[in-house]
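Q: Sequence in, structure out?
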Amino acid sequence: MALMPVAEALARVLAGAEPLAMEAAPLAEAHRRVLAADVNALRTQPPADVSAMDGYAVRAADVASVPARLKLIGEVAAGHPFDGKVGAGEAARIFTGGVVPAGADTIVIQENTTREGDTVVVNTSAGKGRHIRVAGLDFAQDAVLLARGRRLTDRDLALAAAMNHPAVPVHRRPKIAVLATGDELVMPGKNPGIGEIVHSNGYATMALARHEGADVVDLGIAPDRLEETAAAIRRARASGADVLVTSGGASVGEHDLVQKALASEGLKLSFWKVAMRPGRPMMHGRLGVMHVLGLPGNPVSAYVCSVLFLVPLIRRLAGRSDCAPKIESAVLGCDLAENDERADYLRAGLAQRADGTLVATPFPVQDSSMLSPLAKADCLLIREPFAPPAKAGSRCAILKLAL
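A: Exactly. Output:
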């Protein structure tokens, strides 16, 4: 199978992906999730005219000339309306959020008054409607204030609560099953023997998935035996995973059994081998409704493929429209040679000049087994296939890595 361009590979990954089913999420669990339906206001806010200040509810006509002496007839606090009516020459003590009593049409703030027992002296006039929040100032009942497809911010959650929604309709969180493969892998904390290495790929993959709002199932490590690998794949399906992510074993060696195991379970292969560095043996397919991403075994390759393919897939399943990675611009911090037929994703540091310009400098060694440079990297510097030589100071494309 020929090498596939990165853009075409991503298009294939997303082509068969649809937003997941709707569920009602309590507000406390809805942050950054995507609305699956419009959300309309269940009430008018404020539901009645209320005071915006502490002071006195009066008739504007009574305070047109000051000083004006008015008789106090009651008190209005938030949540405690006054049943009476403010008539000529009368006033009601009112606090912020209190419902403006009948008859009153303006608020005089307390700083502009003097209290004399049951009489208030108004020293500054106030026009009609002053310091009153009219009914519906914020929103009216039945108004659609949060539209389908919106990714909910912290402010949106406050609005939904004010609209009287204890929960909102959102797309279900994608469930991602992560499987590592290889006889050489041991878990962190164990003492690797000769020829063994500590498993690391899955931790970055699972962290990326959780950062994107997915639920994660850790399937652990499958040894290089066909039946045990196939059994792990069946566990992923039984868990209800929307996406199975494997790492390692996707190449063509005698011990690379992932493709064989997936094929034995009925994989419909979409592509295998992408024109990118690192990450050439990247694989994608479907097992029924479950998406399958086969990541390379080298840790940097697995990470870059997760950023470029898994993150957009999770976003699509979660209902987001901004699925593709955000490509930004910087300038090169060093000269670069011409590129070959594969897109290059160089791990690079970022610095900012005094004028705000970002300078991306790739690390001198780009081996796909090296995690220490990856951990230090601020971005991936993207070189298109067959890119000509580039001088320091020329423009370049970067993909910032999450902090």
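Helices lie at 6-15, 154-162, 201-211, 226-238, 258-264, 299-317, 371-376.
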